[in-house]
Amino acid sequence: LRGTLAHATSPSTIEVLRDALVVVTDGVITNIVQGADADALQSTLHDVTQLAEDSILLPGFVDTHVHPAQVTFAGSGTDRPLLGPTGWLECYTYPAERAWADPTVAAEVSGAVVRRALKHGCTTAVYFGTIHLEGTLKLVDACLEQGLRAVVGKVCMDRCSPADYVESTEASLSDMEAFVQATIAKAEVAHPNGPLVHPALTPRFIPTCSTALLAGLGEIARKYNGSDGGDGGSRANKVFVQSHIAQSADQLAFVEQLHPGQRDAALFDAAGLLTDRCVLAHAMHLDESELQLIARRKSALAFCPLSNVFHTEKPASTLDAPNAWRCGCNVGLATDTAGGYAPSMLHACRTAVIASRCLHKDTTVDWKYAFWLATRGGAAALSMPIGGFEVGNEFDAQLVDPSAGDPPEEAMALGVLEKYVNLGDDRNVAAVWVRGKQV
Amino acid sequence: LRGTLAHATSPSTIEVLRDALVVVTDGVITNIVQGADADALQSTLHDVTQLAEDSILLPGFVDTHVHPAQVTFAGSGTDRPLLGPTGWLECYTYPAERAWADPTVAAEVSGAVVRRALKHGCTTAVYFGTIHLEGTLKLVDACLEQGLRAVVGKVCMDRCSPADYVESTEASLSDMEAFVQATIAKAEVAHPNGPLVHPALTPRFIPTCSTALLAGLGEIARKYNGSDGGDGGSRANKVFVQSHIAQSADQLAFVEQLHPGQRDAALFDAAGLLTDRCVLAHAMHLDESELQLIARRKSALAFCPLSNVFHTEKPASTLDAPNAWRCGCNVGLATDTAGGYAPSMLHACRTAVIASRCLHKDTTVDWKYAFWLATRGGAAALSMPIGGFEVGNEFDAQLVDPSAGDPPEEAMALGVLEKYVNLGDDRNVAAVWVRGKQV
């Protein structure tokens, strides 16, 4: 492709490459040149797409935490607490997730969620499924069919859950391992040169998982990741871990009640779940020593600004992403649909900026920082070679058309990218590529 | 029209009227009936529009503070302070406003801004123009041509302003009075039965207006409002007042430097500008006694959650709307484009909720409260008979199509209005009426 590229090169720097020629071979960027060099190289190539003059090619967004089964009630129940008999989990989440006992429902909802992610310029998503093995495999199928890069987990929960939405410890572990094996097999068939979809061990959160379940999941992690060839995880199908951590005051109190004197991070670590492919969502109530533990283990955090605002005490708190980076943690951005109502990473960027301005005195997430989190941050959190345009990275990208959608032309004249981050929506996404393939 | 209507009846109550027949005569709601009564009445009427089954008719939004000349840079410069040589006013605002010295530019931008307001379901807007008499009259023309209900002001500023974007006190007052007369005349011609567009005296903010200018504006207010017939202001063309008040720490410091020991509210009051048709934007640094003064004068506040977050110190503050209501002030919601980047009142609703959760411990703006502010609050702030569906109110409405735009159908199944407020966009606005006329 030839045209204008832009990507984040640091939390405060956006690099714009005008009239750049990016060469993609087997999904990997093999060359990027500009100007006269581009003319010379282009004459040797036979298949070059010229991008529209005012359009701009960006890295695809990496959404590090999403609950596909919950989108059916997205936009509802934002005024409820997380826990308790009239809480959000009881009244909205569990009923929506139970519906995935029917694989047909799971397939239909999954198809719509994946379509919507791509439409919004998201090329990689980290998905929380439900406790259903077959239902969550439909989510894997939807990702593979539509070509979305994804980390997908079947949820594990063996206690402190509704009587009709819970597993035994044994069933949870055996279904989880079956899910890992099936996902690895499906991904291998779909992409023999390297998986696009990865399985994730997915304890819901500490309160709904017995110590035995957590320990069993830790064993699965060791078993499947022990013989990694060290190629960075892109081509090998490593098993990820995902969960929620330190999300709200009532969740912390619940953990204290179940595990007196202990906190989330130490409990995950004791089970062997803080791996270098672990993504923990929320994390706004971690202290500095917990952030440092997570950094030492090379685990990562998913910053969910919109849902953080709703599912905490009031005044709300959110993860201070710059501070977490300072402590050495990789942090990605996330929509957390439907804990947050908006499926768009643009909305997550905007909310991250607003929340930072409202809540954090000493650190600032501005629009550039948010864009960096939404691309580079997510790539780092998942240890994937994406998030920016460099030789050797896989080509996951979105083409932004500033003239589409709602913004009037004059509003887009200064700084297309800044306007897209602040004003754009899915109408501005003209095309999307994952590993070099338009999807 | 016959179909499903919804409107706010209190800050915490949304009333849904299913299968309702609303009768509109000369732009005014003359009857609303449901069920069998609707069938009986409908048989006597010859021109009834049946609304689509899943659509919902809402009051049009009232945007109580917008700067049309600034939309050209909307989405830019959110990381700058308000004042100072590299500040937002100097680098973005004044250059964009200077362009309205050319009435052709003013006409073009105004046309686009008014079109966009209507497209987003906004049926009433309070517009800050520029210092240009002719340019700002183009904004009046755009409102009249497209049928938007509006309050429009030519900006007044005679000091502490750039040398090439400032007026003399005399020119400011004479242009302001000429603007008032021209707007009243144009509005009278366009709508002989009662104006849809009203002029507003518009001191930019205290620092850019000399005491003589403020006092002169107060005299104009008395002159044009003295003989009001007391019909509530809908049919008489009262002269409004609008300005900014108590917007940021650096603005307060600037006022203290210019007027030692005095603050914004008292200065406006001394000039006679706190009238019952006065709308003051921002207002987040008013103390309780200032709120009470404004309430006694029956002046109102425009709550601008998005721009408040950007144009204050950090951590940000915003107006605590429930507290201001408790003090007796009418409060409307506002986009403040381009102090805020988003032209949509839906976005203002969402930001009001997020800011309230982040910043205010003792009061809460949830989605219902925000919707109430965006409709009833704005109507109360402007003393206009709009904002809800009652006999005697003028019919300003928007028809919401939940199946349009981005939200998948299943996401709209529970509570169309809540989903629209949280997830919708301009694609969901299927039709818009102002004073009974589809626009």
Structure overview:
Two copies of one chain form a homodimer. The two termini of chain A are 16 Å apart. Chain A is 37% helix and 21% strand. By secondary structure, the first copy, chain A, is α/β, with parallel strands linked by helices. Chain A has two domains: 2-59 and 388-438, Urease, subunit C, domain 1 (Roll); 61-382, Metal-dependent hydrolases (TIM Barrel, Alpha-Beta Barrel), CATH 3.20.20.140. In chain A, strand 2 (13-25) and strand 3 form a beta hairpin. In chain A, the strands form three sheets. Chain A has an eight-stranded parallel beta sheet with strand order 5-6-7-8-9-10-11-12. In chain A, strands 4-13-14-15 form a four-stranded antiparallel beta sheet. Chain A has a three-stranded antiparallel beta sheet with strand order 1-2-3. Chain A has helices at 35-42, 88-98, 103-119, 133-146, 169-190, 211-225, 249-258, 264-270, 288-296, 305-310, 321-326, 345-359, 367-382, 416-423, and strands at 2-10, 13-25, 28-34, 56-59, 61-66, 122-128, 149-156, 197-203, 240-245, 278-282, 300-303, 330-333, 397-400, 429-434, 437-438. At the A-B interface, helix 3, helix 10, helix 12 and helix 14 of A face helix 3, helix 10, helix 12 and helix 15 of B.
Whole-number average pLDDT of chain A? 93
CATH class of the largest domain in chain A: Alpha Beta
Low-confidence stretches of chain A: 228-234
Largest sheet of chain A: 8 strands, parallel
Oligomerization: homodimer
Number of helices of chain A: 14
Q: What is the CA-based Rg of chain A, rounded?
A: 21 Å
State the helical fraction of chain A.
Answer: 25-40%
Strand content of chain A: 15-25%
According to CATH, what is the topology of the largest domain in chain A? TIM Barrel
Name given to the CATH homologous superfamily of the largest domain in chain A: Metal-dependent hydrolases
Extended strand count of chain A: 15
Which chains share the greatest interface? Answer: A-B, 48 and 48 residues
Give the topology string of chain A: H per helix, E per strand: EEEHEEHHEHEHEHEHHEHEHHEHHEHEE
Organism (chains A, B): Emiliania huxleyi (Coccolithophore)
Pfam families (chains A, B): Amidohydro_1 (PF01979)
GO biological process, one term (chains A, B): guanine metabolic process
Protein name (chains A, B): Amidohydrolase-related domain-containing protein
